[in-house]
Amino acid sequence: MRFAHLRRADSPAANLAVVDGTDAILVSDLLADAPATLQQLIEGGTALLDALGSALAEGAAPRHPLGDWEFASAVIAPPAVLAVGLNYAAHSSELGLKTDAAPTVFTLWPNSLAGHGQTTSWPRSLSEAVDYEAELGVLIGTPAKDVSEADALSHVWGYTVVNDITARNIQFSEAQWSRCKSFDGFTPTGPFAVTADEVADPQDLHIWAVVDGDTVQDASTGQMVRSVAKLIAHLSQSLTLLPGTLISTGSPGGAGYSRDPQIFLRDRSTVTVGIDGLGELTTHCRVID
């Protein structure tokens, strides 16, 4: 199944919905004591997901055209957002950074989460070197502590698309990467969160980015230096990965910083990042003078 947080244009309230083709079915119309967010659904475990699937199969709930709604972030109030840097050799090389023996891990702040089709803005005074990064997002489903690589994927609830937007001037002026990637709206996710059973192999997914109509990233998740399973196993050695934790697994080559001439997100730029089977995530950009 695939899920989204949807809202009406005239209301800030997000509604958890099942997405079926071009239709949305509100979870509140399927279950009497329905989870309000994806986080609550994940915390409810397999039993809640199965109950939802059974209610959906009955076909009695009303359907709404997906086009009548706006998207909020696919992930709302997760226990943590963990990001992995330098996980594709081509991206490490183009930034002039070394892929270390252990993953480069940092956190993203919750204010950075944004939805498909939303506008992300930032002050020109802070950065004129804002870059895009298409990434596979992994959602943890059950607590993972000291898990093996062989068992790691059994802890995955699902996947989503992430754009890890980055202010490069700040990234290269500070030792820690959280701030340069955590401006308001710098972590769009979605449009959907897709359950793990719909992804046969997370290392066999086409991933890409398009900026203002031009394809700028075009790769496969099979090019990761460390697979999803390896990342989960590694992270779980030092902390318990709680249900709902989002792990952004790194970006392939093709970042705007490394291009000649460089390509940065400008005022009124549109960037779309996508992953086969998971969807296409679009962000509109505004630079504030």
Task: Produce the secondary structure layout.
Elements lengths: L1 E6 L7 E6 L2 E4 L11 H6 L1 H14 L5 E2 L4 E2 L9 E5 L3 H6 L9 E4 L5 E2 L4 E5 L6 E2 L2 E7 L8 H4 L3 E8 L2 E2 H4 L15 E2 L4 E3 L10 E6 L2 E7 L7 H8 L10 E3 L21 E6 L3 E10 L1
Parallel strand pairs: 6-18, 8-14, 9-20
Antiparallel strand pairs: 1-2, 1-5, 1-15, 2-3, 3-4, 6-7, 10-13, 11-12, 11-18, 12-15, 16-17, 16-19, 19-20
Keywords:
Fumarylacetoacetate hydrolase, domain 2, 289 residues, five-stranded mixed beta sheet, 6 helices, eleven-stranded mixed beta sheet, alpha+beta, 32% strand
Fold and architecture overview:
15% of the residues lie in helices and 32% in strands. The protein is of the alpha+beta class. It has helices spanning 38-43, 45-58, 89-94, 149-152, 168-171, 228-235; strands at 2-7, 15-20, 23-26, 64-65, 70-71, 81-85, 104-107, 113-114, 119-123, 130-131, 134-140, 156-163, 166-167, 187-188, 193-195, 206-211, 214-220, 246-248, 270-275, 279-288. The protein is globular and about 55 Å long. The protein has two domains: 2-71; 81-288, Fumarylacetoacetate hydrolase, domain 2. Strands 1, 2, 3, 4, 5, 6, 7, 11, 12, 15 and 18 form an eleven-stranded mixed β-sheet that branches. Strands 9-20-19-16-17 form a five-stranded mixed β-sheet, with no helix packed on it. The chain is built from six helices and 20 strands. The termini are far apart.
